[in-house]
Amino acid sequence: MQRQYPIGIPGQPWGEAEKQQWFESQSVKRSYFDDVVSEIDALTESFDVHQYGTLDYQTNNYPLYVLKAKQWQNDKPVVLVTGGVHGYETSGVHGALRFAKTRAGSYTDAFNILVAPCISPWGYETINRWNPAAEDPNRSFVANSPAPEAANIMGFLAAQGIEPLVHIDLHETTDTDNSEFRPALAAREGTVNDNWNIPDGFYLVANASRAEVEFQRSVLREVEKVTHIAEADDQGKLIGVDITEHGMIHLPADNLGLCMGLSQARFTTTTEVYPDSPKANPEQCILAQVAAVTGGLDYVRGQL
What we know:
- One of its GO terms (molecular function) is hydrolase activity, acting on ester bonds.
- By secondary structure, this protein is of the alpha/beta class.
- It has helices at about 15-25, 30-40, 90-100, 120-125, 150-160, 175-190, 215-225, 255, 280-304, and strands at about 45-55, 60-70, 80-85, 110-115, 165-170, 205, 235-240, 240-245, 250, 265-275.
């Protein structure tokens, strides 16, 4: 029997009172400024750091940063790497930073590199999927977005006239998806929660409208050198979605408001690392994210 979520009345969507109650139940568990901004500050020799917005929340004001490679030339294709759209997904944030620190320089001959390492800093600090208004940023990359996390990065790209050729969005699937975040979503929506099987291993989510399967395969081949690829469940699914092939599912990113659908990038993917696996550790998870980016860029550079 599933436990009742402690906020709200079963079967009734949350109103503002329940969302405020949820917000007040959150607490800061780590520091965006110590963990992330300090790393960004250490990368100024290789990148120009641009503040593209500020999130003004009751608990703190969070400056939002992108790293733009100093070798930027307008005639080169743009690579966008995003992390921390779901702030609790730690290796997404630190994988983006690690790529910027250790591998981005290997690709500036062919690409303009743009890295947004932590799109949801409040979520990072409180280890949350949502923002303080109980909105999921990774369902909010739409016109007139309800989530400022999404609106700010989309506004920056539009203002700069940046249209990526490649966009790799770094995520995790964790055990807390079933223990906390999916039950919270069902409570917020007034529906019945139906947990999915958490895949043990790395997998990819491709945009169904432009899957570029060989690109996805290149990502998976490189990641497999670092960590294991998730097997489908006994229904042939990952997170409740039919696999298209080993380690890969397709979702309609544009319709769902997913971050990987924020542009018309030809080559795009969402990575999913499983940090709770007994066969992985935090460093492996970070390296898997870096491998995903380099595997994708190696493939695209070969197509130029």
